[in-house]
């Protein structure tokens, strides 16, 4: 939903970042307003996953230039946990398995950290169980997964559902979903996409990082960006994703070569 | 009876020189925390005064104890070990218990606290499980300040007996624990021994399990946590003296600060022990660059038709796991504690309910 007067939630300006002294992002610009769904597409190695990790504050990445403003505050000076508490969410491409830590306990601690930030009371074990059972419906997840260790032994689809369950509990303002469609069969993809659609509202925004059109058949983006060599090369509406599906990414190389010459 | 005087030195008391690091079994284990304490007799009263025996457990008489005490130590070859001799010469509190044949006893809780007065609390425990008997023991040894605990435990499991034994050892930086846990198992018996130790300046535990004719199940779980300048050492030995025995052993370590952890896991499979199925895994987590872990499997396999697996891992807290938790709003220190609790969980959950109630590692895992 595009509303030109909607408040800007996330403003990325000339963002540059490197990992192990290797520059990956070379000046990314992106403005996300409330109510919008954005898709960042691109080939492997284009920098799209790096963008998501830098926004979430992954310690392995160093920001070397540019600014990121989230609801008026400097996001880059915040720890990852502070970013999460004020409503930034990263859905992982490869959700991490944590043996010995109960999924239910993890979800409760995370939910309470977010609630406390917003001034809401902590949920005790019983109140939280009620909430989590209600939110399980968003991703049609079996309650048995609550009793297991975080993501341990989950299939690819179960891990992604668990990510969206976390999103449903944390109620983020800006959700970044990194390759949420990877490794999903069509049924799991439908469930996950359905969850994302349910959670989208005029007050929040979603940034989908994806390789393929197939996720965008189920979640219609308002803006599509093509990323290559660490910057956004082209932006457009949903038709850009369809065009990419048709012509592939080969034009990217030509455009990059031209940029080099120019 | 409690002795009124002790020798002036640990050497005099035990009747032999304190083990030095020139001895292979003590190569990584410095007894400085022990020798810094002057041997003083226990004056804290009878630690068994409030002992309540559950239904199904009876107490051996002194005469019976005189006969059986030491038999398991001799069988498992540790009667001459320095910590065992020290225990014998320190007038230990003796407790002998029997579970009658085909009796399933109620859980037994035993607690021994060495206090903080720099005294030596020596305990000699003898457990006898008759054929088909079963017993669950939750045992706690602790020290609230300067103190020494000398623990010698002997258990015999007759055919088809089952012993679930949880030992929680919670010490202090100025305290030392020397423990021997000797078990002889008859065929068909099952031993499930879980030992958790944390906080001691020096902790040395020696579980020694002999399957006298093989064909028994032995399950060992160990967890030791060292911080500051603490040292924890587990020397385990499992020996199969007949065929078809099984061992499942997991030993875990958390080494923080300038702590030192030693694990030496010996498994002996002589010619008679065909079709033995033994697995041993040692896992260590290093939380600091100053901490040190020495871990060594020691498999002596003579029989040819056996399955013996062993492995050792050493790791640090994983950055990806920490970041995942942080990205959900969980602060870095709380995230680290959650990961550590998760790491310890597969040993802690094996403790009998009463032992879990003592909240081992609460100080390490719950305090910010």
What is the CATH architecture annotation of the domain at 8-96 and 172-261 in chain A?
A: 3-Layer(aba) Sandwich
How many DSSP-defined strands of chain A?
Answer: 12
In terms of quaternary structure, the protein is heterodimer
Largest sheet: number of strands, sense, barrel closure of chain B: 9 strands, mixed
- Radius of gyration of chain A, whole Å: 18 Å
Largest sheet of chain A: 6 strands, mixed
Question: What's the arrangement of strands in the largest beta sheet of chain A?
Answer: 6-9-10-3-11-12
Low-confidence runs of chain A (pLDDT<50, min 5 residues)? none
The total beta strand count of chain B reads 17
Distance between the termini of chain A: 36 Å
What strand line-up does the widest sheet of chain B have?
Answer: 1-2-4-6-8-10-12-14-16
Beta-strand fraction estimate of chain B = 35-45%
Q: What's the CATH class of the domain at 8-96 and 172-261 in chain A, please?
A: Alpha Beta
Q: Roughly how many Å is the radius of gyration of chain B? A: 20 Å
| Class from secondary-structure proportions of chain A | alpha/beta
CATH topology of the domain at 8-96 and 172-261 in chain A: Rossmann fold
Could you please describe the fold and organization of this structure?
The complex is a heterodimer of chains A (262) and B (368). Chain A has helices at 48-56, 80-85, 103-117, 125-136, 144-147, 156-170, 186-199, 214-218, 238-247, 250-261; strands spanning 8-19, 22-33, 37-41, 61-70, 73-74, 88-91, 98-102, 149-150, 174-178, 205-210, 223-228, 231-236. Chain A is of the alpha/beta class. Chain A has a domain at 8-96 and 172-261: 3-Layer(aba) Sandwich (Rossmann fold), CATH 3.40.50. Chain A has a six-stranded mixed beta sheet with strand order 6-9-10-3-11-12, sandwiched between helices. The two termini of chain A are 36 Å apart. In chain B, helix 6 (319-326) crosses helix 7 (332-348). Chain B is globular and about 60 Å long. Chain B is of the alpha/beta class. The chains are: A alpha/beta (262), B alpha/beta (368). The A-B interface holds A 56-60, 79-81, 83-85, 89-90, 92, 95-96, 98-101, 105-106, 109-110, 113-114, 117, 149, 166, 170 and B 318-321, 323-332, 334-335, 338-339, 341-346.
């Amino acid at each position: 939903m595009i509303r030109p007067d909607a408040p800007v939630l996330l403003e990325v300006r000339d963002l540059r970042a490197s990992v192990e002294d290797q520059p990956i992002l070379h000046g990314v610009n992106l403005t996300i307003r409330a109510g919008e769904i954005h898709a960042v597409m691109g080939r492997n190695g284009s920098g799209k996953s790096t963008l998501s990790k830098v926004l979430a504050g992954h310690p392995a990445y160093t920001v070397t230039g540019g600014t990121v403003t989230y609801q008026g505050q400097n996001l880059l000076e915040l720890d990852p946990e502070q970013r999460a508490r004020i409503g930034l969410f990263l859905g992982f491409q490869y959700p991490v398995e944590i043996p010995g830590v109960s999924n239910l306990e993890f979800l409760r601690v995370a939910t309470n950290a977010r609630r406390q930030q917003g001034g809401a009371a902590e949920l005790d074990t019983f109140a939280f169980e009620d909430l989590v059972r209600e939110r399980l419906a968003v991703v049609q997840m079996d309650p048995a997964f609550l009793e297991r260790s975080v993501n341990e032994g989950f299939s690819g689809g179960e891990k992604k559902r668990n990510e969206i369950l976390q999103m449903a509990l944390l109620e983020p303002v800006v959700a970044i979903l990194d390759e949420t469609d990877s490794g999903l069969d069509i049924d799991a993809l439908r469930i996950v996409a359905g969850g994302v659609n349910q959670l989208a509202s005029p007050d929040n925004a979603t940034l989908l990082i994806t390789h393929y059109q197939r996720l965008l058949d189920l979640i219609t983006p308002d803006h599509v960006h093509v990323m290559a060599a660490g910057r956004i090369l082209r932006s457009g509406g949903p038709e850009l994703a369809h065009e990419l599906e048709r012509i592939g990414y080969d034009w990217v190389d030509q455009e990059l070569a031209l940029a080099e010459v120019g | 009876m409690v002795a009124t005087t002790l020798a002036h030195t640990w050497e005099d008391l035990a009747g032999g020189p304190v083990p030095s690091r020139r001895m292979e079994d003590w190569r990584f284990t410095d007894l400085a925390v022990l020798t810094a304490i002057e041997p003083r007799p226990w004056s804290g009263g009878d630690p068994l005064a409030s002992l309540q025996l559950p239904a199904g457990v009876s107490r051996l008489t002194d005469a019976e104890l005189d006969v059986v005490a030491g038999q398991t130590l001799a069988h498992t070859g540790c009667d001459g070990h320095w910590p065992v001799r020290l225990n014998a010469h320190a007038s230990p509190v003796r407790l002998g218990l029997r579970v009658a044949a085909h009796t399933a006893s109620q859980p037994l809780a035993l607690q021994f606290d060495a206090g903080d007065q720099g005294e030596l609390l020596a305990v000699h425990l003898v457990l006898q499980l008759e054929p088909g008997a079963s017993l669950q023991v939750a045992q706690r040894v602790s020290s609230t300040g300067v103190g020494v605990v000398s623990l010698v435990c002997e258990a015999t499991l007759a055919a088809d007996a089952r012993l679930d034994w949880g030992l929680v050892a919670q010490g202090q930086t100025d305290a030392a624990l020397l423990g021997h846990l000797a078990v002889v198992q008859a065929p068909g018996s099952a031993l499930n021994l879980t030992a958790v130790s944390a906080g001691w300046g020096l902790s040395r535990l020696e579980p020694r399990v002999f399957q006298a004719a093989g064909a028994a199940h032995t399950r060992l779980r160990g967890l030791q946590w060292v911080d500051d300048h603490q040292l924890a050492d587990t020397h385990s030995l499992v020996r199969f003296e007949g065929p078809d025995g099984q061992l499942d052993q997991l030993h875990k370590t958390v080494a923080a600060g300038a702590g030192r952890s030693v694990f030496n896991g010996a498994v002996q499979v002589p010619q008679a022990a065909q079709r033995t199925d033994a697995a041993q895994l040692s896992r260590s987590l290093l939380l600091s660059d100053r901490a040190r872990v020495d871990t060594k499997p020691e498999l002596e396999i003579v029989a040819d038709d056996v399955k013996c697996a062993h492995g050792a891992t050493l790791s640090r807290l994983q950055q990806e796991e920490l970041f995942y938790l942080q990205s959900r709003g969980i602060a870095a220190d709380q995230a680290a504690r959650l990961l550590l609790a998760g790491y310890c969980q597969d040993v802690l959950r094996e403790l009998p309910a009463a032992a879990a109630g003592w909240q081992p590692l609460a100080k390490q895992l719950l305090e910010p």
